[in-house]
Here is the input.
Amino acid sequence: MRTLLLWVVMGVLANTAGADDLPDVKSKSAIAIDAESGAEIFAKDADEIRAIASTTKIFVAMAVRKKGLDLDAWTKISKDDARYARGGSRTRLDVGDTFRNHDLLRAMLMASDNRAPTALARAAGMTPEQLVAAMNGIAKDLDLKRTKFTDPTGLRGNVSTAREMAIALRAALQDDVLRAIMNDPFQTIVAKDGRPKIGYGSTNQPLVVHKWDVIGGKTGYTTAAGYCYITAARFGEREVVFAFLGAEGKQTRFADFNRVATWIDRGAPGAKVSLTAKARRPLKIDREIRGRVAKP
Here is the structure.
């Protein structure tokens, strides 16, 4: 109830801004891009390199999917998984328990469980080091020149920019499996022997609240990164991808999304690309606009 009340208050504050004002975004870096063309709609220090925390995990998901991860196979959580997750938030994947790989993807993308990335890598035939190399390979494929990975969980060292994280999420959402997981507000996963049964709720608060038609995304937090949030939402027939990095408060990133979404819903006065034209269905990533923003 407290969360819902806070969201209502944020909505009221966002709606009191002048119709001609650009959104007053508090996150240190932010961007909104058109999902079809990649064109920039709104940006604030969008090319500043910053730590990205657990938003890292969309690259883990893309890397293991590219490697041919068997979604129906089972993987046991190991002591190595626990070691790589050390220093992160509480895990619910106990060492020795075995889960379907599809469910480990859910645990990782919905609730950011830090034991899932290396377990998924092992399921796809990769060591943690090979997973990091594969993640850097995904960034290279997308021409993300400022995105670098040294850690599979996002707890240590990974960096990118708001622009490049929006481009990466745009690519991840082209995968129907990942899109469905990131669009799911709640899921129960079950270990191979039937116990434990674990309920995971999405940390994507706007998805859960339903004020906007949120497609899916990922949150993250470390001391170095601050509070981060990448997501996509639908406005009529048009999809927009957002990234907010370096917020100082847990709710600030969601309030920033609400401010920019409200501005877009009003017609985005002063936007770099018009949202009034009828949009076609989102296209696959075009090689000519990977890693940069297409001109409107």
About this structure: The CA atoms of residues 234 and 273 lie 16 Å apart. The first helix runs from residue 2 to 15. The chain has one domain: 20-289.
